[in-house]
Write a structure and sequence with these properties.
With about 350 residues, the protein is of the alpha/beta class. It contains 12 helices and 12 strands. It binds nicotinamide-adenine-dinucleotide.
């Protein structure tokens, strides 16, 4: 059956990088992939077009699609909007609406780019970590939240952290399943020494682990994990953690790999329907200049074929094409070392299409 993809370019560099991903989709379709796609709005572009960052037309299309490919949302043009109309609300809205609770971010270091990491090559060469972040719970969604007067009469802001048993169980299962396809090691990251929510998280992860005796489970406090990621990153295989800790650790891990322009991500529901997007933002500083690196978005297409369409061989083909263009020496500005020739967004997309054969 034809797989339906909803493409949401978003804001600033979003349409530019998505344009290159579409070239890849066109090449795959010409080669026989049974896919079809439509375009929609999310974020600032959706506010401009329809007055809401996640409008009903996008909701309908997103619910009907098999997978969603997103560019990035946000930027200075929308910074003054009221909170409920800001582009980020569109992103949180679609994740919640589609129940995309598992965020997968591989951090892999390509041999050719190992020198562009801020860490010494010997610490990161061959690095291959999967960070699994719970995406629909935790303090980002907890109620009550807001502002109030405290008992002393002072104004205060407050949020609520919580996780339910089913929420922890399902993300733990995704982690153990993913580890089975890798090096069979899961490190669960929490703040069990301070937070009740973390104590509960750890207890449930240990219970779910009983179903996966072949996978090794360890635990680490989030502050130590932040340190270990820069001290000895290759000790990790799969890291599983909650929404707020995962937000921070996955950005940290992305820096190990050099540029955020190289890193894809997937957010999955319980049936592997997913939204795929580069981990970077809308990069307003380079928008419209043919400077953005489209490879993270193209690699996100690869993840889509692997996780939502169950076609790992297509995913491998895309990854190999990306490896090939790097071996050929093609570099956008963000991944170029001093003196290396720099090419533009469109030229990089063309190089990947050529490498796909
Ligand atoms: P950013 O990721 O957009 O940019 C950070 C730096 O990385 C900038 O110097 C940018 O030029 C560079 N960069 C990012 N992507 C690149 C690419 N593909 N190629 C080359 N260089 C690239 O982060 P920011 O500047 O903090 O945020 C800009 C806007 O994006 C904000 O409005 C923010 O809220 C939004 N944002 C959106 C998402 C998302 O849509 N998922 C994620 C993060 C930030």
């Amino acid at each position: 059956m034809t797989k339906k993809i909803l493409i949401l370019p978003g804001d600033y560099i979003g349409p530019e990088i998505l344009g290159e991903a579409v070239k890849v989709l066109e090449t795959l379709k010409r080669g026989g992939a049974d896919i079809a796609w439509t375009f929609g709005h999310l974020g600032g572009a959706a506010y401009d077009a329809e007055g809401h960052p996640y409008p009903p037309s996008t909701q309908k299309a997103a619910r009907e699609a098999d997978a969603i490919l997103l560019g990035a949302v946000g930027g200075p043009k929308y910074d003054e909007l009221p909170r409920e109309l800001r582009p980020e609300r569109g992103l949180l809205g679609i994740r919640k609406d589609l129940n995309l609770f598992a965020n997968l971010r591989p951090a892999r270091v390509y041999e050719e780019l190992a020198d562009s990491s801020s860490l010494k090559k010997e610490f990161i060469a061959g690095l291959d970590i999967l960070i699994l972040r719970e995406l629909t719970g935790d303090i980002y969604f907890g109620q009550p939240r807001g502002r109030r007067k405290n008992a002393d009469g002072h104004d205060e802001g407050f949020d609520t952290m919580h996780y339910s048993r089913p929420e922890v169980e399902r993300i733990a299962r995704v982690a153990f399943e993913a580890a089975r396809k890798r090096s069979k090691r899961v490190c669960s990251v929490d703040k069990e020494n301070v937070l009740d929510t973390s104590r509960f998280w750890r207890e449930v992860v240990v219970q779910v682990h009983k179903e996966y005796p072949d996978v090794e489970l360890s635990h680490m406090y989030v502050d130590n994990a932040a340190m270990q990621l820069v001290k000895k990153p290759k000790q990790f295989d799969v890291i599983v953690t909650g929404n707020i800790f995962g937000d921070i650790l996955s950005d940290e891990a992305s820096m190990l790999a050099g540029s955020i322009g190289m890193l894809p991500s997937a957010s999955l529901d319980a049936n592997n329907k997913g939204m795929y997007e580069p981990i970077h933002g809308s990069a307003p500083d380079i928008a419209g200049q043919n400077k953005a690196n489209p490879l993270a978005t193209i690699l996100s297409v690869g993840m889509m074929f692997k996780y939502s369409f169950n076609r790992p061989e297509v995913s491998d083909r895309i990854e190999n094409a990306v490896k090939k263009v790097l071996q050929q020496g093609h570099r956008t500005g963000d991944i170029a070392m001093k003196g290396e020739k720099i090419i533009g967004t469109r030229e990089m997309g063309d190089a990947v299409v050529a490498a796909l054969g």
